[in-house]
Specification:
The complex is a heterodimer. Chain A is mostly helical. Chain A has a single domain, classed as Orthogonal Bundle (Ammonium transporter fold). A three-stranded mixed beta sheet of chain A has the order 1-3-2. The radius of gyration of chain A is 21 Å and the shape is globular. By secondary structure, chain B is α+β, with helices and mostly antiparallel strands. Chain B has a single domain, classed as Alpha-Beta Plaits (2-Layer Sandwich). Chain B contains two helices and six strands. Chain B has a four-stranded antiparallel beta sheet with strand order 2-5-1-6, covered by helices on one side. In chain B, a hairpin with a 2-residue loop joins β3 and β4. In chain B, α1 runs antiparallel to α2. The longest helix of chain B is centred in the C-terminal third of the chain and has 11 residues. The interface between A and B is medium-sized, with 18 and 7 residues.
Chain lengths: 455, 112
């Protein structure tokens, strides 16, 4: 995409990269500056392939399925029975909010024309100028998908990311506070970070950071924000002395399955075409996850415990998180190692680091998504190497790539941390943030929604 | 009349019921209960968070029978609920002052 950069590298870096809008008025010259010659010429309109379009529509819906009911059941099962509906409702509602904000101003902030390293221009606010004939470029010259499909696909990423953050704050945060926090957080954290990683003018994109499907944008971003939010919000009453066992690991298991299946839309869909790159992402999403599931159970055994169902589910999610940035940027055996390593590190993060530091990340959004995301993002700089079976070119410089990966990770951590502090305090000022101790003891299902999950 | 209360392992309920039916026991009340004795509870671990459950699920059977049948009832439960392991449960026998069948108003042993 960029003549001065290894095209393979850029391909991974951009996932949703350079958008090219042929036939759409108001194109920014700055955007075109980074496009290859074929795009600048009075080129023929890119071809919209029906197979690609159908696959991207399918992928978009798979990601939606990850949120409702996938994540809602996964998280819901981990909470106590009195907070089941609250957890599921917060996830669904905040995802809906993200969808509406996305078409109003989120899309243009992330992928609009012009802008700078951190945010795009506002020319596409309220989807101005976009028609059914508008197209978004894929990674293949001359091949495009309808821009509406690209908008929807990216919309689901914004929606699931804010939903993931909630994993640390469930069982005590007001529903109104969740909605205010969600709106502010998406605006000052998600949209800029998505721009930085995936838009052609974005900071990490220009640095050449590899992030196939959103390891930084989605998982590190959500995980770090979850940790900061939980620290400000405080522990649940009774944590960690009272029993807070998951109320239904059956539900969590169902959610885990839906997440895994949906993740093929997330990862393989990030190829933006139905092609070999999507196929590579697909096989990696199988094998990294399988390795991670078993690795978690093995490390449980190594620590003198039984291999557990929750460990199996946790390993699956840790593996999926870790392979996200590496999906199209690794060979299958690199992905297996990456998944297994991430799973082991996440196990220690949730089982030892969290109790030692004493924060109440209720459902381990940081321990799995934050930690697993960092392992994945940094590890992608290793498994990309052609000597390890990755798709990198023979002259791939692992040392340089690792520095770029770590810079992108560190920047995301700082951005997410600072933005979350602002968003949480805005929510606190507007709503009070936390439910009363009475509501917390009685359960948020009754206190916030007037219902019980089980009658 | 005697009230026989037996706390047994849940999976032994069917065997106990069959054994009691054979010796002429015509009815019983069964509850799911929790408790502890010499059998300790289990430890559950969820992502490193350990919870020890010191209450073990048991079945409580209550039988009211004629006094002369009580010894056979106790023997029958003791034999049929026995696995030889800690946690098999206990049997208690109490005197009963009165019994009434609600539908007919019959009293004492005719009400059983």
């Amino acid at each position: 995409m960029n003549g001065t950069t290894d095209p393979g590298l850029m391909k991974g870096a951009m996932m949703n990269k350079t958008l090219k809008y042929v036939g759409v008025a108001g194109l920014g010259a700055a955007l075109f500056a980074s496009l290859p010659a074929w795009a600048q010429a009075a080129a023929p309109a890119p071809t919209v392939n029906k197979g690609d379009t159908a696959w991207m529509m399918t992928s978009t819906l798979l990601v939606l399925m990850m949120i409702v009911p996938g994540l809602a059941l996964f998280y819901g099962g981990l909470t106590r029975a009195k907070n089941m509906l609250s957890t599921m409702t917060q996830i669904g509602a905040v995802a809906c909010l993200a969808m509406l904000i996305w078409v109003m101003y989120g899309y243009t902030m992330a992928f609009g024309d012009g802008g700078n390293d951190f945010v795009s221009g506002f020319g596409k606010a309220f989807l101005a100028g976009i028609t059914p004939d508008s197209t978004a470029a894929t990674f293949t010259a001359g091949v495009a998908i309808p821009e509406y499909v690209f908008i929807c696909f990216q919309m689901t990423f914004a929606a699931i990311t804010i939903a993931l953050v909630l994993g640390s704050v469930v069982e005590r945060m007001k529903f109104s506070a969740v909605m205010v926090f969600g709106a502010v957080w998406l605006t000052i954290v998600y949209f800029p970070v998505a721009h930085m990683v995936w838009a052609s003018g974005g900071l990490f994109f220009k640095m050449g950071a590899l992030d196939f499907a959103g390891g930084t944008v989605v998982h590190i971003n959500a995980g770090v924000s979850a940790l900061v939010a939980a620290l400000i919000l405080g522990k649940r009453i009774g944590y960690p002395t009272e029993r807070m066992a998951p109320h239904s690991l059956t539900m969590t298991g169902i959610g885990t399955g839906l997440l895994w299946v949906g993740w093929f839309g997330f990862n393989a869909g990030s190829a933006l075409e139905a092609n070999g790159s999507a196929a590579l992402a697909m096989i990696n999403t199988f094998v990294a996850t399988a390795a991670a599931a078993l690795a978690w159970m093995l490390v449980e055994r190594a620590n003198g415990h039984k291999g557990s169902a929750l460990g199996f589910c946790s390993g699956i999610v840790a593996g999926l998180v870790a392979v996200t940035p590496a999906a199209g940027n690794s060979g299958p055996f690199g992905a297996i190692i990456l998944g297994a390593v991430a799973s082991v590190v996440c196990y220690y993060a949730v089982s030892f680091l969290k109790p030692k530091l004493g924060y109440d990340d209720a459902l381990d959004a940081f321990g799995v998504h934050g930690v697993g995301g960092m392992i994945g993002a940094i590890g992608t700089g290793i498994v990309y190497a052609p000597t390890l079976g990755g798709p990198g070119k023979p002259d791939f410089n692992m040392g340089h790539q690792l520095i770029v990966q770590i810079e992108a990770v560190a920047t995301t951590i700082v951005w997410a941390g600072v933005g979350t502090v602002i968003a949480i305090y805005v929510a606190k000022a507007v709503t009070g943030l936390r439910v009363s101790p009475e509501v917390e003891r009685e359960g948020l299902d009754i206190g916030e929604h007037g219902e019980r999950a089980y009658n | 009349m005697k009230l026989v209360i037996a706390i047994i392992k849940p999976f032994k309920l069917d065997e106990v019921r069959e054994a009691l039916t054979e010796i002429g026991v015509a009815g019983m009340t069964v509850s799911e209960v929790k408790g502890f004795g010499r059998q300790k509870g289990q430890t559950e671990i969820y992502r490193g968070a350990e919870y020890s459950t010191n209450m073990v699920p048991k079945i409580k059977i209550e039988i009211v029978c004629a006094s002369d049948l009580a010894d056979k009832v106790v023997e029958s439960i003791q034999a049929s609920a026995n696995t030889g392991a800690i946690g098999d449960g206990k049997i208690f026998v109490l005197d009963v002052g009165q019994a009434v069948r609600i539908r007919t108003g019959e009293t004492d042993e005719t009400a059983l």
